[in-house]
TrEMBL record:
<dbReference type="InterPro" id="IPR016161">
    <property type="entry name" value="Ald_DH/histidinol_DH"/>
</dbReference>
<dbReference type="InterPro" id="IPR016163">
    <property type="entry name" value="Ald_DH_C"/>
</dbReference>
<dbReference type="GO" id="GO:0046872">
    <property type="term" value="F:metal ion binding"/>
</dbReference>
<feature type="active site">
    <location>
        <position position="251"/>
    </location>
</feature>
<keyword id="KW-0560">Oxidoreductase</keyword>
<dbReference type="InterPro" id="IPR016162">
    <property type="entry name" value="Ald_DH_N"/>
</dbReference>
<dbReference type="Pfam" id="PF00171">
    <property type="entry name" value="Aldedh"/>
</dbReference>
<comment type="similarity">
    <text>Belongs to the aldehyde dehydrogenase family.</text>
</comment>
<keyword id="KW-0479">Metal-binding</keyword>
<protein>
    <recommendedName>
        <fullName>Betaine-aldehyde dehydrogenase</fullName>
        <ecNumber>1.2.1.8</ecNumber>
    </recommendedName>
</protein>
<keyword id="KW-0630">Potassium</keyword>
<feature type="domain" description="Aldehyde dehydrogenase">
    <location>
        <begin position="19"/>
        <end position="475"/>
    </location>
</feature>
<dbReference type="InterPro" id="IPR016160">
    <property type="entry name" value="Ald_DH_CS_CYS"/>
</dbReference>
<keyword id="KW-0558">Oxidation</keyword>
<keyword id="KW-0520">NAD</keyword>
<dbReference type="InterPro" id="IPR015590">
    <property type="entry name" value="Aldehyde_DH_dom"/>
</dbReference>
<dbReference type="InterPro" id="IPR011264">
    <property type="entry name" value="BADH"/>
</dbReference>
Amino acid sequence: MSYDPQPEASHYVAGGYIEDTGGAPLEVVYPFTGARIARLHCATDRVIELALASALEAQEVWAAMSGTERGRVLRRAADIMRGRNRELSELETRDTGKPLQETLVADATSGADALEYFGGLAATLTGEHIPLGTDWAYTMREPLGLCVGIGAWNYPTQIACWKAAPALACGNAMVFKPSEETPLSALKVAEILTEAGAPPGLFNVVQGGGDVGAALVADARVAKVSLTGSVPTGRRVYAAAAERIKHVTMELGGKSPLLVFDDADVEDAVGGAILGNFYSSGQVCSNGTRVFVQRGLRERFLRRLSERLEAGVVMGDPLDEATNIGPLVSAAQRDKVMGYIRQGAREGARLIHGGTAGPGPGFFVAPTVFADVTDDMVIAREEIFGPVMAVLDFDTEEEAVARANATPFGLSAGVFTRDIARAHRVIGRLHAGSCFINSYNDAPVEVPFGGVKASGVGRENAKAAIEHYSQLKSVYVRMGAVEAPF
Ligand SMILES: NC(=O)C1=CN([C@@H]2O[C@H](COP(=O)(O)OP(=O)(O)OC[C@H]3O[C@@H](n4cnc5c(N)ncnc54)[C@H](O)[C@@H]3O)[C@@H](O)[C@H]2O)C=CC1
């Protein structure tokens, strides 16, 4: 590591770092060693007020610029971010514990994609002309105003950019609160936007936990709240936003099904299940953690899965690029995941691989596979958010679809089969927002991402996100006399 992860100050407001040591201390721990790497302070009321006020001011300036000018700033930010990818990836690895092998390709790069994509769209956000005989109407696509973004700890840079890029492209300003577990990289996103030419205050970062998030959501000047987090938090934030009829985007948790039929390519299906359960040590909301395998393929699937885990897992120092499994974000998350593993064993699931914590002081959990899991087991019902795969058996397509849908969540779903008609038929019947055929967990910026049912409201990425950061104004234009009844 070539630099100190300790930022200049805790918050980024009005185009620069600010500190208020009156806020509760916020310790940042490297999940590989458990050692403190930075010390920040939670935002005080004063910091929150400064952030909101400066965002309101910046928004007016920003919205008055042309889409082309706004887009140029975002695309410049994308280039700066790509140029600093290694440094940003190392910081992300320190903050989250995710292997550098991953952060080099999935965090700042994904953030840069969002800035580039929405930078490109900014100039195209127009209304329409509606002819009505001699009269006519037109629509204008307007920004919402001041948006609040609240992040989870698994993809701090990506989450900040997936929210900021469409918000700013539409002419909004944002106050972003990262997860208190991973507060560092959003500050870099703010620095980069300033360097790219964003007006001071356009994108502010304030630190803190749920209370700081709640204060932002409650503020009457905030027009929209976009949260990435768990379903219980989503429920609270959605309710608070409803008090003032605010717009919301809710990217929440899941317990997604991955259906593997007898005719699937077993290597691809195993690969999909690995990507959909163990990437980022399983701390991915869209993970396909209920792997339904048709009975005829089950033993081969489990054998190849075990062999590939046995031969392929490199658990260790996340800054070593050979490492492909890092620690979980915190000791608390490790303990929670280990609790689920014990629960799975108690409920009678068959442990095929892993099941242990460690090694060392880091918050590791070995990639874990349970077979013979049944729908009623807790490990098949609750989001674990760790490297725990539940393999369930099924006989018929009808049965698999019904069981896959029997969950309050609906974020993602996948199907592995060589039968193209079945693939589309099954996907058509699954209740999920982000689906995959013979693949799992791809999330390019061009494709809408988000859930149905308890997994969320709204979509991130793609043109769909524009709908969630802008509103239409309709203007009726009468060309003739007004004929009033009296
Ligand atoms: N659908 C998606 O796109 C994604 C969803 N997630 C979900 O996030 C969860 C894991 O992340 P965590 O950080 O543990 O989630 P969390 O729900 O505990 O916290 C999320 C964020 O909300 C804030 N918060 C908590 N209470 C609040 C309140 N009352 N008002 C305003 N803000 C509040 C937290 O400080 C944090 O920044 C998992 O359930 C996962 O599935 C994670 C990544 C992506």
